[in-house]
């Protein structure tokens, strides 16, 4: 495996940024259906869940050339792009949509011409409706449907990049979409959860099989690598030396780390999961044949979405004994709880914990579990209510958040973790599944009330430009200098950047 230069990147996702949902031959996915059926807009300024239309979103479908210029000005080295299966196969698993391939080909080519390496993620929660009608990820046939999709992606797009991912955040998708109705397909069914999770893992193994074939056919470079991306939140025992809380953290890790990484890196499932299937009398068996196939087709590296750690206690802990920032969360296994203590913990305005301290130890734990594979941070960022009323968008809290986390990534690299890149969430403001268009994440502001979805740089854009230009050596936050930098960027932000 070749030595890779460290990449400073940004990440985004088709259904959150792209728009053009009924254009270019595309049909509906489960997210189109879900947002239409569950449309809700909370009052302005409330940190509540907004489920809004994704028909246009940030209109990346039409504006990717503008966005490529903005990324080039930033010096961005990579763009992690969670792709849209439905745009390429809108009817079934056999008929490729030429317009869908051509759009991706032109978008990837435009990025490369602007110095930005596309880093595709093949699947992120967005099952085509034609597949969902036939059972979606509960139907084992989806593994072969997915095979057709990845074959087309490698054949037509493989020339543009040597870094690929299969799935992104299988845990959130499986838990929120199959054990809950928070996200589509909103199944709320334990058997559906088990089937969907296993078939997600099988699609990754099939993708690895096709990845190796694509290398032999010359569609991909011999150095190309294929990864799986997981959103593990490292646990902190609520009571540091309490043996029950320490044990609860161990069990939590089996359910929230190993369950979503072991199958595609080791070809195994944690025993707690297999025991739970039996205890719940779930009529589904993971065959030895499938396990052999998983073991024979492991992923090459790990993507990690690090936003925050979590506080875990034993299930019998009485949370009324401490002051909480927000209510305790319980899970389908009654062996631990997740708490949000108020004292000594920082939170965003969206009540997400701010704490970079578990990034190094978490990375070393992943290395210990899965060996000296390459690692890449694929998502890390802060959702906020940005003040866009002034000429300069001064998102200093985001800059401070990013600074503290990039610092820890570089420390982990020095400690021997083979980090090949850092990709922040996200390039520009988007539709957020948890906050709609009111939850700002981007380095670049999008005016969602503008007919052209006008782009404007934020302070974080100027700061990340400084980080990239210095190859990660200058993480300083000099407000006077950054103000000058941002003013210079804004003054040169002509109509080609809007």
Automatic annotation (TrEMBL):
Keywords: Glycosidase, Hydrolase. GO terms for cellular component: cytosol. The gene is bglC. Pfam families: Glyco_hydro_1. Belongs to the glycosyl hydrolase 1 family. It comes from Spiroplasma sabaudiense Ar-1343. It comes from the Bacteria. This is Aryl-phospho-beta-d-glucosidase. InterPro entries: GH, Glyco_hydro_1. The lineage of its organism: Bacteria, Bacillati, Mycoplasmatota, Mollicutes, Entomoplasmatales. One of its GO terms (molecular function) is beta-glucosidase activity. GO terms for biological process: carbohydrate catabolic process.
């Amino acid at each position: 495996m070749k030595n890779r230069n460290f990449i400073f990147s940004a990440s985004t996702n088709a259904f959150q940024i792209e728009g053009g949902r009924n254009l270019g031959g595309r049909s509906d996915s489960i997210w189109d259906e879900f947002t239409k059926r569950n449309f809700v807009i909370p009052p302005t300024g409330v940190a509540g869940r907004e489920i809004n239309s994704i028909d246009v979103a940030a209109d990346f479908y039409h504006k990717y050339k503008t966005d490529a210029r903005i990324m080039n000005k930033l010096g961005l080295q990579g763009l992690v792009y969670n792709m849209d299966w439905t745009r390429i196969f809108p009817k079934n698993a056999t008929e490729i949509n030429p317009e869908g391939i051509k759009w991706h080909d032109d978008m990837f080519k435009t990025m490369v011409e602007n110095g930005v390496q596309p880093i595709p993620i093949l699947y992120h929660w967005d099952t085509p409706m034609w597949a969902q009608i036939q059972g979606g990820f509960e139907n084992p046939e989806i593994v072969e449907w997915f095979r057709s999709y990845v074959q087309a992606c490698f054949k037509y797009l493989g020339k543009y990049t040597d870094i690929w991912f299969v799935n992104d955040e299988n845990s959130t998708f499986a838990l929120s979409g199959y054990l809950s109705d928070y996200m589509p397909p909103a199944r709320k069914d334990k058997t559906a959860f088990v089937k969907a999770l296993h078939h997600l893992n099988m699609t990754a193994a099939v993708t690895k099989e096709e990845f190796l074939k694509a290398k032999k056919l010359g569609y991909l470079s011999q150095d190309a690598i294929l990864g799986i991306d997981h959103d593990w939140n490292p646990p902190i025992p609520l009571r540091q030396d309490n043996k029950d809380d320490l044990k609860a953290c161990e069990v939590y890790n089996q359910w929230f780390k190993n369950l979503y990484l072991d199958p595609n890196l080791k070809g195994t499932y944690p025993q707690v999961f297999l025991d739970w299937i039996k205890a719940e009398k779930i009529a589904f068996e993971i065959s030895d044949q499938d396990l052999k196939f998983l073991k024979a087709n492991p992923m090459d590296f790990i993507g990690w979405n690090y936003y925050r750690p979590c506080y875990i206690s034993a299930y019998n802990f009485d949370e009324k004994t401490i002051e909480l920032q927000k209510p305790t969360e319980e899970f389908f296994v009654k062996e631990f709880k997740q708490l949000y203590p108020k004292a000594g913990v920082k939170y965003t305005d969206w009540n997400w914990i701010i704490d970079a301290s578990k990034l190094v130890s978490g990375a070393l734990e992943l290395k210990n579990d899965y060996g000296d594979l390459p690692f890449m941070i694929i998502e890390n960022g802060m959702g906020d209510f940005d003040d866009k009323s002034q000429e300069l968008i001064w998102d200093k809290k985001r800059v401070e958040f990013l600074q503290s986390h990039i610092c820890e990534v570089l420390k982990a690299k020095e400690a021997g973790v083979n980090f090949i890149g850092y990709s922040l969430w996200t390039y520009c403001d988007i539709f957020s599944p948890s906050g709609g268009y009111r939850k700002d994440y981007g380095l670049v502001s999008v005016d969602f009330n503008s007919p052209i979805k006008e782009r404007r740089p934020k302070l974080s854009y100027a700061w990340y430009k400084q980080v990239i230009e210095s190859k990660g050596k200058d993480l300083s936050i000099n407000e006077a200098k950054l103000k000058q930098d941002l003013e210079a960027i804004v003054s040169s932000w002509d109509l080609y950047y809007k």
